[in-house]
Structures are given as structure tokens and as C-alpha cells.
Amino acid sequence: MANSFDLTGILRDNIRNLIPYSSARDEFKGEASVLLDANENAYGSPLDGNYNRYPDPLQQQLKVKLSGIKGVPPRNIFLGNGSDEAIDILYRAFCRPGVDNVILVPPTYGMYEVSAHINDAAVKKVNLTEDFQLNLEGIAEAIDANTRIIFLCSPNNPTGNSLHREDVETILANFKGLVVIDEAYINYARQKTFIQELTEYSNLVVLQTLSKAWGLAGLRLGMAFASEEIIEVFNKIKPPYNINQATQELALKALDNVDKVNEWIRETVSEREKLSTKLSSLAFVLRVYPSDANFILAKTTNPRQLYDYLVEKSIIVRDRSKVELCEGCLRITVGTPDENKLLLEALDEFAFAH
Ligand SMILES: Cc1ncc(COP(=O)(O)O)c(C=O)c1O
């Protein structure tokens, strides 16, 4: 491993010295018939199931199941209340408020910046290039002694493309802080995940989520994959019961459906390609960007007018036309074949009317 990354060197002192909360379920982990340790309601719950009991703070069963699917040991997995919880914890652990900074590469997912502001971490922006790839020189210049994290998103939201793997590897090998690769859309990508590289790069954190391909945005289950040392930091900071019992049970059940998810992924990718081709043929669409995700970024002649027209037709897309480098663009999530058909019909009507 070329990178001489030192995790303890970037960990905030208050976190290093923190004595974490020790819950009743942390202290007693075995099976017992009389549980009088957690001030729960021993009589039961109004719902069927064990909801009167606190859930497993470390979600062991769920992690074992995810481990089988992802090929990463449970000790390298953190589960959060959506990926957004993992993003927030990264700031709280590694960025001293008012002192440290992170590098963001816009246009990208908005929560990295919001979370930075919440945690009073400075943001250094190094825009992606015109073809939405990393500006490696710009990033190298932006790094200073207080740069703690570089957030990358691949496939990137809202542009849809994957970042060149060699560029990401260059950053991983040279940056002495954490490199977070948000792979929320990886299931739709041609490029392979970075989670197999955890042993190669000790500064790597990969984020994934059940909110996209797995169809479980409502459950709120985000995953962070990283070295055991980093995962221990996450576990130290997180609220004791951050993943509720219902989410743990439902996610366990849902994870039995890999085949169904793979079928949805195949269909979404096929619909994405069809939709991209059709969008490209429309006169008011100037450019359709190649997508590795479940959405398409399209540059149009008059985005606001088109957006409003679609709203009138009860079709909602995302107006990204005010976002730097995305001027004129709408971001369109790939729907079901029926939904995509309705969208294309509405677009044809718009072409006819304008
Ligand atoms: C790149 C990216 N990361 C993370 C998320 C949020 O994931 P979660 O639902 O797990 O918080 C999104 C949601 O749109 C996203 O686009």
C-alpha cells in the first residue's frame, strides 16, 4: 500500500477521547428469559412482534446477510439511517468545526455541502470538467494541511456518469485524508464497485444505500464500507439504536429478493437506453448525457417552460438548470415502461405545441 494514511492523525480529539454511551443491549448480549435491564414495557407492544424491545444496536444479523451479498466482512460495514447519517458522522468525526475543510467536486449530490455547513466545515469546490470527470490538478492544488475528506460520487448525481476509475485510484493512493466514494447508483453502472478495494486503501469509505435499486427509500437504510478502524469510529458516534427494529426486520426480509432486484435493474437499464435514444431525437433536446444511473440528464432549449409543461401533465422531473455546468438541464428518473411512455407522449406534445 503506497499511501501512508494515518487515521488517528485526522480523528478529532473529542472523538478519540469519547467514552461512548453503553446501552443495556451493549452490556448484555446473550439470550435470557427475564429482561429487566432496559426499562422497556415488559407487557408487550400494541403491534405483533418484538417492538417493546430495543433493537440490536449493531444490527449483527443484517450485517451478516449484507456481508453475503456484498462480499465484505460484517466488521467492515456500518449501517445508518440513510447514507445521509453516514455523511454527517464523517464530518463529526473528522472535521474540526471552523478549522478543517473538505473537497467537493460539483455538480454533485447536495447533502455533502449541506452537511458541511451544519458541521461548520469549510468547503473547497473543484468543479468537474466539461465532460463531468475529475480535475485532478485542481484537486491536488486545493488540498491543504486541514483537508480531511474528499467526497466523490460515482455514478454521479445529477450528471449520471461514472468517474474514471484510474482518477479515483490516483486520489486514493495520494491523498492523506479520507476518500468517500458514494455509490448510491452503482447497481445501474457498467463500472464495478470499489468495495473490493478496502484492503488496498485504508483511507477509503464507500457509501451505498437500499434507497435506489433495492426499492427501499422509505426504510432509510444506508451502508458505509470501510476499514475496521473507521467503522469503529462510526459505531462510537452513532446514536445507540440508529436502525429501528422494523427497518432491521424488513431489510432482512427484502434482502432475500436479489433476483427480483436484478430483474428491476436490467429493466431500468434497458428503459434508460430507450429513453435516452428517444430524448436525443427531440428537437428541443440539445444533449442527452450518457448515464450509468437510473436517471438521465438532458440539456434542453427551454428547461423551465418544459418543466412547467410536464407539471401541468402531472409528470414531475427535477429542474437542474440553475446548477453549475448543468445549465439548461432537466434530470429525469427512469420510470416504469408505462410511465416512460407517458413522459415521451407529453414530450411529443410539447414539441408539437412549441
Ligand atoms: C448520490 C446520492 N447519495 C445518497 C443519497 C441518499 O441516500 P439515502 O436515501 O440512503 O440517504 C442520494 C439520494 O438521492 C444520492 O443521490
Automatic annotation (TrEMBL):
InterPro entries linked to this entry: Aminotrans_II_pyridoxalP_BS, Aminotransferase_I/II_large, HisP_aminotrans, PyrdxlP-dep_Trfase, PyrdxlP-dep_Trfase_major, PyrdxlP-dep_Trfase_small
One Pfam match: Aminotran_1_2
SUPFAM superfamilies documented for this protein: PLP-dependent transferases
Catalytic activity annotation: L-histidinol phosphate + 2-oxoglutarate = 3-(imidazol-4-yl)-2-oxopropyl phosphate + L-glutamate
Class of this enzyme: transferase
Keyword Mitochondrion: no
Molecular function (Gene Ontology), one example: transaminase activity
Keyword Transport found: no
Keywords noted in UniProt: Amino-acid biosynthesis, Aminotransferase, Histidine biosynthesis, Pyridoxal phosphate, Transferase
Recorded metabolic or biological pathway in which this protein acts: Lipid metabolism; Amino-acid biosynthesis; L-histidine biosynthesis; L-histidine from 5-phospho-alpha-D-ribose 1-diphosphate: step 7/9
Aminotransferase class I/classII large domain span: 49-347
Assembly and oligomerization: Homodimer.
Similarity remark: Belongs to the class-II pyridoxal-phosphate-dependent aminotransferase family. Histidinol-phosphate aminotransferase subfamily.
HAMAP family recorded: HisC_aminotrans_2
Protein name: Histidinol-phosphate aminotransferase
Organism for this UniProt entry: Parapedobacter defluvii
Gene that specifies this protein: hisC
